[in-house]
Amino acid sequence: MAQDTFxxxxxxxxxASGVLEGKVAIVTGASSGIGQAVAIAYxxxxxxxxxxxxxxxxxxxxxxxxxxxxxxxxxALSGDLSKSDNCGKLVNFALDEFGQIDILVNNAGYQYxxxxxxxxxxxxxxxxxxxxxxxxxxxxxxxxxxxxxxxRIINTASIxxxxxxxxxIDYSGANGxxxxxxxxxxxxxxxxxxxxxxxxxxxxxTPLIPKTFGDLNPNxxxxxxxxxxxxxxxxxxELAKAFVFLADPQNSYMTGQVLHINGGDYMxx
Length: 269
Prior knowledge:
Protein name: SDR family oxidoreductase
Strand order of the largest sheet: 3-2-1-4-5-6-7
Oligomer: single chain
Number of domains: 1
Number of strands: 7
GO molecular function, one term: oxidoreductase activity, acting on CH-OH group of donors
Strand content: 5-15%
Radius of gyration: 17 Å
CATH architecture: 3-Layer(aba) Sandwich
CATH topology: Rossmann fold
Structural class: alpha/beta
Family: Belongs to the short-chain dehydrogenases/reductases (SDR) family.
Keywords: Oxidoreductase
Helix content: 25-40%
Pfam families: adh_short_C2
CATH superfamily: NAD(P)-binding Rossmann-like Domain
């Protein structure tokens, strides 16, 4: 099944109820894909959004414009969040712009497919973990002194943390680390009434897929996701409501959990 273009305008039909009015959210990896969809949904729910991104200035600007289009405020800051200093800069940027942080969405990530474990270099292994799991911890650590009772931390992991992927061995491991740290942080922060949860998407059609799998599979746009029970890949906007649910102040008794949104591919026990 050929994929649609990369477009989160389907969120124009998202019916908001204002559950995030007065909140400020940091969303990383928000210049496209899942992060962009989350930023738009949060804006429609009333939150101000700080967008963290690496180098896609055009995509980040588009996200800012979409947030503003839906009636909220947004600021964007570029930086490599695999470096702890940049995580501190993003937190300080959010505080300078909006004065508070209520929701932290650790969504940034990258993958380097390899058909053989022998092709995974030391440098690739380290970079994959730095981008995915180290950055999540660094940003959480930087934000924690500024999070108050009722704050929410949401980590975007992957189905590959649970079922693995033969061409994404290091990426699967990095997401597994993210899941474990989500659970550990939840245990540590629950008495402070800060909830830590995650989402493990299945095959979601984002710019990352053709960018990273295009060389291995020239037909990736036609067959990506066709092997799951739903028979297709998901679109980023189909995850947005789950991120809102986890950020909702009324969702106060759920922590240490990971939601599986994957078209029926992996069914958690």
